[in-house]
Amino acid sequence: MAENRSLPFFIVPRVGLEPTRGCPHTVLNRARKPIPPPRRDLTLPKISLFVNSKNLCYGNLMARIISILNQKGGTGKSTTSVNLPVFLAAMGKRVLLVDFDSQANATFSLGIDPKKLPLSVYHALMGQVTPSAIIRKTSFFGYEIMPASPDLAGATVELVSLKDREFKLDQTLEKVKDSYDFIIIDSPPSLGLLTLNALVASKEILIPVQCEYLALEGLEQLLATIDLVKNNLNKEVKITGALLTMYNRGNRLSRDVAKEVRRNFPGYVFDAVIPRAIVLAEAPKFGKPILQYAPASLATKAYRELAEEIINLETYNLKPITQEE
């Protein structure tokens, strides 16, 4: 009789965990054979396979905190913030969306009226309530939101006189980050104090880039801000990648901008491209992500591909990027 080599149930990866290219070792492979020595330029995260009732399959890996950031408005930042977590959750991840924009577009897009919220991320940021008191569930299992309200606009003024004002969001998320695999932050379209808080709280940055030439102008300023945070606040922030949005394949300008971005940032541009689609503009009116509103659309396919790429990116493969690069 053949030897039974089946593995205990507690080290079998959940749906969506198994990586493809770029990730040579799955959790199963770690159990069956020793991990080869890492390359000198890589630092592997520590992984524990001990059973944990709170985090059954991930051991002691911490949440990936990703800010979706661009100081220019109209780049598809909030649209990406709302729709990306849907597909991460569908792949078995626990996701928290932090709406950190006083316009509260992400909150509204999920069917929550920001003006009727008794508590929002503002109250947690100012220490008036615990973060868990304001978190709300969405219609997708594993996808929760820390909603925003117009009150957040006042935080910019109130934070100025506070000690460690750049670390307030980081301190807030510290209390809940162990409950999630991903924390996605929808940052405001500016380079003010709220955006600085989002940068400090984040481990990674995803930059949506509209396929228009004016969208390229702000990238240099954004990279300079990231360098400022890294050098002055002793915070290592890494670029997950640039995401091309509002792409029109039949438009020569879109093709030229996409080519320009890929040439200037080789290795930092996602393969997934978000098309210009009317369904993405219509979905927030009904308080639905694109997967619910138009499941067969090209936009749905694009966000699914983006989620797959992000999951397949191991944290230790992400490299910092600066203006010189």
What does this structure look like?
The protein is of the alpha/beta class and 325 residues long. It has one domain (64-317): Rossmann fold, CATH 3.40.50. It is 34% helix and 14% strand. It contains twelve helices and eight strands. It has helices spanning 27-32, 77-90, 105-109, 121-125, 152-158, 168-173, 193-201, 213-232, 252-264, 278-282, 290-293, 298-312, and strands at residues 64-68, 95-99, 136-137, 143-146, 182-186, 204-210, 238-247, 269-275. It has an eight-stranded mixed beta sheet with strand order 3-4-2-5-1-6-7-8, with helices on both faces. Helix 2 crosses helix 12. The protein is globular, with a radius of gyration of 20 Å. The termini are far apart. The model is unreliable at 1-60 and 315-325 (pLDDT under 50).
CATH class: Alpha Beta
Mean pLDDT metric: 80
Count of beta strands: 8
Largest sheet: 8 strands, mixed
Can you identify the CATH superfamily? P-loop containing nucleotide triphosphate hydrolases
What is the succession of H and E elements?
HEHEHHEEHHEHEHEHEHHH
Unreliable stretches = 1-60, 315-325
Read across the widest sheet, the strand sequence of neighbours is 3-4-2-5-1-6-7-8
Concise summary:
With 325 residues, the chain is of the alpha/beta class. 34% of the residues lie in helices and 14% in strands.
Topology:
Layout: H1 27-32, E1 64-68, H2 77-90, E2 95-99, H3 105-109, H4 121-125, E3 136-137, E4 143-146, H5 152-158, H6 168-173, E5 182-186, H7 193-201, E6 204-210, H8 213-232, E7 238-247, H9 252-264, E8 269-275, H10 278-282, H11 290-293, H12 298-312
Parallel strand pairs: 1-5, 1-6, 2-4, 2-5, 6-7, 7-8
Antiparallel strand pairs: 3-4
Helix pairs in contact: 2-12
